[in-house]
Amino acid sequence: MCAFTHLCCQVGVAIDVCLTRLCCQVGVAIDVCLVLGPLKRCLQETIDYTRDRKAFGRSVLNNQVVHYRLAELETELEALRAMIYKTISEE
Question: In the chain, how many domains are there?
Answer without folding.
Answer: 1
